[in-house]
Structures are given as structure tokens and as C-alpha cells.
């Protein structure tokens, strides 16, 4: 949805289906502008999570990858997701191998416990929120908002132009 792809060309190779709008953050704007344009409730949740001692970081060593996979499956079960959204461990391994450094794992922790974890892709200036999982024990703290904000800051510092959150 971020690329100006001619739909006519796509329709020659398959059916084009519009699923609705998506949300993205323009990282070309000044960081203060992005922050001030964020919903007040989101800013409040981010600050509250920080006050509660939650910390969002990139897991560069991938030490929490297996935990993410398990947490992701549990999240899909809780949501009653269709089989389409359940991926094997082999899928995650292939994804990581295929994307290499273009895939990153982010986690939010409190006192060594993982509150949420997400995979993001980074290609051609676009950072894409790919898959996410959370521990329901931390739902009141809204750790995903803290995580997305940390990724926004990181992506912007790296010179990316968009943070695409999807359509959820």
C-alpha cells in the first residue's frame, strides 16, 4: 500500500482485492512532530509503560527467538486465528535465513520477563511491522505501544522513510 504500484499491471497476473486502509508513520518528519501527532492515549501508554519499568530493545543476538515463536503461537490460539496464521518453526527459521539483516526481533521486557515481541522487516527505507506476540499478563501495560515507538525511533535514526504498521 505504500508503493504506487499500477493495479492494472497486477490484474493481468491475478485478482486484485482491496482489503482496506493501512497505517504508516512518515519517518521523514521531525521526531518531535511525529511524537506530538501521535494519539494522546498512545503517548500516555508509552510513558506509563516506561514508568512501570518496561524496556523495549532490539534483540540483536536473537536469544529470545524461540520464546517469540512460542508466544506468537499462544497469541494466535488466544485470538482464535485461522490456520493461515499459524506458522511452523521451520517457517520462522526460513524467514530469518532468507531476510538476514533485513529482519529484526524486538522485545519488551520487565524484570527479565518478555511482555511482547515482534518481527520487523527493513527494506528500501520501509520498516514493516510483520508479526507480533504478547503475554496477556502484561496487557494492562500495553507493551506493544512502547515497542512500536522504540522501533520508530530506531528506524528514523537509520534514515528509513516509513514505518508501516499494517491494517490490523
Structural description of this entry:
The chain is α+β, with helices and mostly antiparallel strands and about 170 residues long. Helix content is about 40%, strand content about 25%. The protein has six helices and six strands; from the N terminus they run αβααβααβββαβ. The chain has helices spanning about 5-10, 30-35, 40-50, 65-80, 90-100, 145-155, and strands at about 25, 55-60, 105-110, 115-125, 125-135, 160-165. It has a six-stranded mixed beta sheet with strand order 1-6-5-4-3-2. A hairpin with a 2-residue loop joins β3 and β4 (about 115-125). α3 crosses α6 (about 145-155). The longest helix is centred in the middle third of the chain and has 15 residues, at about 65-80. The protein is globular. The two termini are about 15 Å apart.
Keywords:
168 residues; alpha+beta; six-stranded mixed β-sheet; 6 helices; 39% helix
SSE run: HEHHEHHEEEHE
Spatially, the strands of the biggest sheet line up as 1-6-5-4-3-2
Percentage of residues in helical conformation: 25-40%
First-last Cα distance: 14 Å
Proportion of residues in extended strands: 15-25%
Number of helices: 6
Total number of beta strands: 6
Mean pLDDT, rounded to whole units? 93
Q: State the major sheet.
A: 6 strands, mixed
Shape: globular
Low-confidence stretches: none
